[in-house]
Amino acid sequence: MSNRTPLAVIWDVDGTLVDTAELHFQSWATLANELGLPFSRDDFNATFGWRNQEIIPKLFPNHAASDKVAELSDRKESLYRAEAEAGVKLLPGARALLDGLHKAGFLQAIGSSAPRENLELILRLTATRHLFAAVVAMEDTQRGKPDPQVFLLAAERIGVEPARCLVIEDAPVGIQAAKAGGMKAIGVTFVGHHSPEALRTAGADLVVRSLEEVSIALVSQLLRETSSDAAGG
């Protein structure tokens, strides 16, 4: 790949690199129980991938004051990190694709709605931090997906124009954010939170069951890389 025309892959984390949904569900359920409030799987599925600043007022409207939202957010994430420390593994195909992209010269970044401390924990537990040139977290943005801010900021921080970026996501709102930012997008259905049809309707350029189906050559093709710049794979 030519150094003059870098290409980049921007990764979502939860449901894409790792499956931590059950850990998040349990932490939200524990928080709701502490508050004496109901919390269902439907509540979780309807808000998964949102920022805490958006989830808490939606699910717990009596705790919508900004200081209370911050307090509850900190408590929920503390519960989550305690559970995650027990061990988190990369999803099938993730390690090979991450390493292959790195060796081929692609820049990589994280673009997530999760708090930075959570992301750094996941990257530490999976030994992948060195592969990412930038990590954009909840604290870095003012607007959540489907707004493209998180992905545009990731592209800016690694110095790659949006048209040369590809986003890997598992949620329709993430696919919508990528497309709104002028990027290519691959939807992954492995964790089963969203149907292939939902991801296609959101605008995914490709939908796969697993990252094992994604090659370096395929990423290059989606980005319409010229033959002289081809990364191979």
Structure description:
With 233 residues, the chain is an alpha/beta fold. It has two domains: 8-19 and 89-229, Rossmann fold (3-Layer(aba) Sandwich), CATH 3.40.50; 21-84, Orthogonal Bundle (DNA polymerase, domain 1), CATH 1.10.150. The protein has ten helices and six strands. Helix 8 (172-180) packs parallel to helix 9. The longest helix has 19 residues, at 66-84. It is globular.
Which structural class do the helices and strands define? alpha/beta
Tell me the number of structural domains.
2
Helix content: 40-55%
Mean pLDDT across the residues is 92
Sheet-strand content, in percent, reads: 5-15%
Provide tags for this entry.
2 domains; 233 residues; Rossmann fold; single chain; alpha/beta; disordered C terminus
